[in-house]
Amino acid sequence: MVRTGKGNGGGAGGCGPGIVVGLNAVIIAVTDEEPRVLTVSVPGDTPMEGGAPAAVGEGAETQEALPTGPLDPKGDRTLELALRRWVRAQTGLELGYVEQLYTFGDRFRDPRERRGGPRVLSVAYLALVREGRVAGESPSRWRGVYRFFPWEDWRGGPPSIVERRLLPAVEAWVREAPGRAARELRRERAAVAFGRGRDRWDGERVLDRYELLYEMGLLPETIRDARAAGEKPPEAVARPLPGSSLAFDHRRILATALGRIRGKIRYRPVVFELVPEEFTLLRLQRTVEALSGIRLHKQNFRRLVDSGGLVEGTGRLEQGSRGRPAELFRFRREVILERPAPGVGLPARSR
Amino acid sequence: MVRTGKGNGGGAGGCGPGIVVGLNAVIIAVTDEEPRVLTVSVPGDTPMEGGAPAAVGEGAETQEALPTGPLDPKGDRTLELALRRWVRAQTGLELGYVEQLYTFGDRFRDPRERRGGPRVLSVAYLALVREGRVAGESPSRWRGVYRFFPWEDWRGGPPSIVERRLLPAVEAWVREAPGRAARELRRERAAVAFGRGRDRWDGERVLDRYELLYEMGLLPETIRDARAAGEKPPEAVARPLPGSSLAFDHRRILATALGRIRGKIRYRPVVFELVPEEFTLLRLQRTVEALSGIRLHKQNFRRLVDSGGLVEGTGRLEQGSRGRPAELFRFRREVILERPAPGVGLPARSR
DNA sequence: CTCCTTATGCTCGTTATGAGTATAAATATC
DNA sequence: GATATTTATACTCATAACGAGCATAAGGAG
């Protein structure tokens, strides 16, 4: 009957558990039509689950990471409450919408594991907050999400990085597969992730794309991790793709989060967690566009949310904007009682 | 710093970690038009993450539970591989489709926690297998999923239990709320979970319903857990709802899994993991119906999967059935390259 | 007053969906 | 062997949902 970790005692330090658990928060806001994520600075050698705060900014090179905190096994009633607790303490943010994202537990995702450190599990959460008010004095800041995934922002048409670097690299990767069968496999994986070209790009497959790029050796993480393992990178690539990285596997976690949001937005009214109580329809649309990374047809968006019962007009108008003043709307909570899956129903493809 | 569990020492046995991690498998198959889940027998006092195998079947009353296994922090490269490993060892099953479901970590979900035991986290996985071949000699067996959720099977119309017990109880629960505000809150929660009546029942909200029923005190778990906590059940209910329970919070985990499958089936071609290589369209339809719990329109289902490009005919016919022989079809793998979200697109409501 | 900008209303063709009707090809029954 | 029964499969039809575009309204800037 399945004992955990065949002998809890076998792990690090003679008596340690061999496994430690941390909680991870992907906190998303949309400001200035840009989706943003809250990151913190950690010293270069910080263990993932925290550690002595090691005097941040004391000289050693710091990395950017997602906020991480502990579960107090004797105190926190649920994982989510634990997350809310330490996010409040760390950043001053009172989280609204929170959902569990995924639990990450690959071996060596914390490099210290190679030096006898414990296996580190992270239960990652996605949180949406309304504004960019970071109250904490902690070294946290809002970063544009597309800083980490430049290839995911199609609002201005196909990003040049996709055309110029990504697709050619993918094609080369498929071509250079060792053997016919491997080539077919790669072709299919590439087609699923990138939709065989600029057409058919599926906005939700953020994680598939990230993982493929990682595997192809196009990301700095690939080199970093291979070096840590004492191997040489899979296929030495001239230069990594543009786009910032994050410590540990946190860019992967962020990719998971972005994909989840893009999916969720279609069938649950989660956008409203990101806009003020009252908003113009354009603001709502821009928020959806920021997250989904594509442009939407204005009139149809209006029809969708208005006659779809997602919003109701307040009768009041927005002040101080260019052009004809827009009516302020608010979310119609009743819609969740009326329709099974009220979302904004993005088009399959952009444009 | 966040060491896990602020005071690793406080836990079980003086040196325990305070947190232990287990993996949980919800293994689903569909046989005889019935969705089934693999369960195992555990002695009444088994700790969730396993422990000394305590001689199964030695007299003490046994409970039914989901298969559970460990993560070997030094050996298993990923959580999913760990799961595949011990499922193979325990049951002989070679899992095909596997996806992570959710991580459960509420306090006291393992009752031994109250007696100083460690906090037990379970990372639950959903696995789909083609046939009901349980090779292992372990005390595992296939149970009909609706044995645990009789109110979720609407294939024969609204289940009598819904009409006769569930909805009346829900209405009473709303009515008896302490105060006006609480009543409104309950009304809304009930409406979301149960769709304000036999109409608008959303098949995917399995977990919402389970949790509401738990909270209402309509399940044996409510009483069990309250007793373990030394409290009295929230609102003493005459008799619990029909439907088998599972050990620990495993019925909740199963509810999560069923809801996930029902959602997934709509936009990913996962049904094909549950039928043989070649199948008739009726068989495919019955499998979808078994999972979604509703009946579908035969001709439209055919149109959906056939002209939708999900399947292709083999030209061969099924042998030995009543009526006109049906053509055998197979899954068209190419569809995942062609369409972004190929699923079977269930109707919002039944009938 | 005219142009520019944004908001909002409405139309139109296409596709998807829900519900049938009709016919075909087997086996079972008398 | 004719007929009923059962299941498969092909089509039709009305309606809803969707994608794209035209047209008009209501502000400010020049």
Q: What can be said about this structure in brief?
A:
2 copies of one chain form a homodimer. With 351 residues, chain A is an alpha+beta fold. Chain A is built from 9 helices and 10 strands.
Q: What fraction of the residues of chain A are assigned to beta strands by DSSP?
A: 15-25%
Q: Write down the CATH class of the largest domain in chain A.
A: Alpha Beta
Assign the CATH topology of the largest domain in chain A.
Answer: Nucleoside Triphosphate Pyrophosphohydrolase
CATH architecture of the largest domain in chain A: Alpha-Beta Complex
Number of domain units of chain A:
3
The helix content of chain A, as a percent range, equals 25-40%
On the 0-100 scale, what is the average pLDDT of chain A?
A: 87
Assembly state of the chains shown: homodimer
CA-CA gap between termini of chain A = 55 Å
Shape of chain A: globular
Largest Cβ-defined interface: A-B, 59 and 66 residues
Helix and strand sequence of chain A: EEEEHEEEHHHHHEHHEEH
> How many H/I helical runs of chain A?
9
Give a quick account of the main beta sheet of chain A: strands, pairing sense, barrel closure: 7 strands, mixed
C-alpha-based Rg of chain A, rounded: 22 Å
Uncertain segments of chain A of ≥5 residues (pLDDT<50)? 1-16, 51-57
Number of strands of chain A: 10
Could you name the CATH homologous superfamily of the largest domain in chain A?
A: Nucleoside Triphosphate Pyrophosphohydrolase
Structural class assignment of chain A: alpha+beta
